[in-house]
Amino acid sequence: MNAPVAAPSALSPALTLIGRALRWLDGVPYSGLAIPLRLAVATVFWNSAMTKLANWDTAVALFVEEYKVPLIPPEIAAYVAATIELTTPVLLVGGLATRPAAAVLLGMVIVIEIFVYPLAWPTHIQWAAMLLVLLCRGPGKLSIDHLLWQRLRPNHVIE
Length: 159
Prior knowledge:
The protein is mostly helical. The chain has a domain at about 45-150. The protein contains seven helices and no strands. The protein is elongated. The N and C termini lie far apart (about 55 Å). The model has no long low-confidence stretch (mean pLDDT about 90).
């Protein structure tokens, strides 16, 4: 007895095409994904720093009247925020100290979400997601971190 042979489905070419597309997407190297993540997050915080620096008095006034971060005087909070927003984007763009920079920015996003703009969670969760990927996976091979690690790590360490 022969088992019945299934007739070719009309979906077969479409499934083959989808399978090829998925295999191609699975083959995209992480470094190709990490660069736009680094640039996107860096742009958000760099632009915020530029806004603060464009009118420092207004920036401090926002920390006094609107942001109201607990435990830190508003003037100090403004300086801390501006410093983080000026330094971490530069680190992210170069892929230098990417994980510490991502951790600092993730902490800042958490503070912003909890104490400043809790209703802006749809935006903050996007920033957090990008930062979590960078924190967990690093900057990728096209980064200063990768170059340094290649030079500094002992030969017996396996990635």
